[in-house]
Amino acid sequence: MEVFFYGLFMDEAILRKNGVNPANPRKGHLNNYTLKIGNRASLIPCENEKAYGIVMEVDDEEAVQLYAEKSVADYIPEKVKVVINAGEELSATCYNLPLELLTGTNESYARSLYELARKLDFPEAYLEKINQFIP
After folding, report:
1. Taking the CB of the first residue and of the last residue of the chain, which one, N or C, has fewer CB atoms within 10 A?
2. Could you give the percent of the chain with pLDDT greater than 90?
3. Rounded CA separation 127/117 (Å)
4. What span, in angstroms and rounded, lies between the C-alpha atoms of 135 and 129?
5. Which pLDDT tens digit goes with each residue over 79-122?
6. What is the mean pLDDT of the chain?
7. 3-class SS of residue 125
């Protein structure tokens, strides 16, 4: 299955450490979503915004096991259209935390996500958005 990752799971090494063997990673974005960081990250529908991430092929069972882990068990899968390359769209699953469960702050997570997004060469405006979650 194609999964769109937008948080620290964009790091293939973290996925492998969690028993996931991703394939075919591609940078992309979701239109009309924005990133929010509380204790963890989530994407929230928001008109005229873009959320960047990596879409990867992941075994269905591995994805289920990944999101069964206690810290991400509240994330819900939803179907999304990921824009890759020069406007090409593909269908993928994106796991999001419901807005009412998005609480707290996590400076360490935000810093790690900023560094990963910078390493992945995401747009400067998106890096600034992540930076706003770092006090």
Report:
1. C
2. 90
3. 7
4. 12
5. 999 999 778 999 999 999 998 999 888 999 999 999 999 999 99
6. 95
7. helix
Which of 92, 89, 88 lies closest to 80 in space, CA to CA? 92
What pLDDT sits at residue 86? 77
Task: Give me the pLDDT at residue 135, please.
Answer: 82
SS3 content of the chain, % helix, strand, coil (to 5): 30, 40, 30
Tokens of 129: 């958005």
Whether 2 shows a pLDDT value over 80: the answer reads yes
Determine phi and psi for 121, rounding to 5 degrees: 60, 45
Which amino acid would we find at residue 46? C
Q: Tokens at residue 11, please?
A: 């790091």
Hey, what domains does the chain have and what are their CATH numbers? 2-131 (3.10.490.10)
SS3 of 3-42: the string is EEECCHHHCHHHHHHCCCCCEEEEEEEEEEEEEEECCCEE
Q: Say whether pTM exceeds 0.90.
A: yes
Q: Taking each helix axis from N to C terminus, what angle separates 124-131 and 107-119, rounded to the nearest 10 degrees?
A: 170
